[in-house]
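Input/output pair, single chain:
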Amino acid sequence: MRYQSEQSLHLSLAANLARDNPLLQQGVYDHKALKNLFHTLMVLGPAFEFYYLDDQGNILTHSADPSLVKRDKVNLEPLLQLTQNRAQLPIYGDDPRHLSRQKIFSAAPVFNGINLKGYLYVIVAGEKYDSAVASSRQIRQSEYSIAILVFAIVLLFIIMLCLFRYFTNPLRQLIRDMNLVQKEGFNQVELVPNNWQKNSYSEVHQLGFVFQNMIQTINQQFSQLKNIDENRKTLLADLSHDLRTPLSSIQGYIETIAISDKNLTEQQKQTFIGTALRCTKQLKKMIDQIFELAHLDKGDVSMTYEEFNLLELLYDVKAKFELAANEKSISIKVEAKVSGNQIIKNDIGKIERVLSNLIENALRHSSSGGEIILSIETKGTDSFMVKVKDFGTGISDEDIPYIFDARYRGSNATKGNNERGGLGLAICKKLLSLMNEEISVESVLGQGSCFSFNIKSR
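Output:
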């Protein structure tokens, strides 16, 4: 499009020069005169190159340095197309300065009278024009390159800022969480979830995940410590009350004997001494249970595994409580729904302790003439279900979820001077948890209770 406009603009240039110049108008060929003319015209139009051709297209003279001209002849066909308007613009002619290059031109025939003497051939966009255009294009290209470079630098800077913010944002968030924890004095604090990714390739996300888990663990430990402290206060209050009762009874009876010794009959003295002795035994038993439970809570209890016959153990425990049961007219029975060998390997001492606590509890809540049943049944290879069932006072539905808590005292607890354990069921649960077993209870208030647990061979 540019070359078409250039050629169209200078289409009549050669014709005007040929018409206005006396030498060319007369068809006179004077090499020196034409050369001077061409040089004069080049001063006015540095982008033009002037050539004078004969009627065969041979170059007779020109405005260029002879060393720069590579052709001796120019093809006349494009000139005829231009002068005779036989083709659309742009029309390209031979460039005398190059063996194969073509350029736009302006041309006009030169006559001497009616005889064709030659052609005035003007290259419109010559070497100087090309050099100027190339220089201008290079300058524009340089400016464009500089603009692109500046834009790229600015864009790179923005991208780097965004990347820096993207990569440092988790770190700032982690610092904010740490400062929040420090501000709270490392007390229990709830952090806003930050979606820290455990399996992320970012070390900051991994660190944040560990930190968040650490805070959750700390919060759980704070809650546990708080609950432990509250339970400890409750336990101390309950123990103080339970210990004060037998101590007060012992003190009262001893003071009565000491003050009114001469006024008391021998039978009264024996009654007071017997009551004080029972309170002393009850006090000792409670203290032993407290130490036992504290020892279990400490968590350093070792397990001693040995082989024994589970059914024989039930009969041994029955014999142990036979006298106490007979005193209350309560019968203890053993039922075995087992097949094969009852030999298992486990901690016989702890299992006997669990059975003893459950039978004591059953005796305490059974009335005269009642019955306690110890039973075992096979649950699988080397696994048995043990049950202790009584037909005593039973447990209310409201009390069942809490009966294994230390120092919990249900609505069916015995009153007055009757002996009571208090910590027996809590100790049973602790002992069974050491063997990875659970204890369960089924009870109906006023009809009795049935405690059951599994025993496996280790």
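The chain has twelve helices and twelve strands. Residues 138 and 154 are 24 Å apart (CA to CA).
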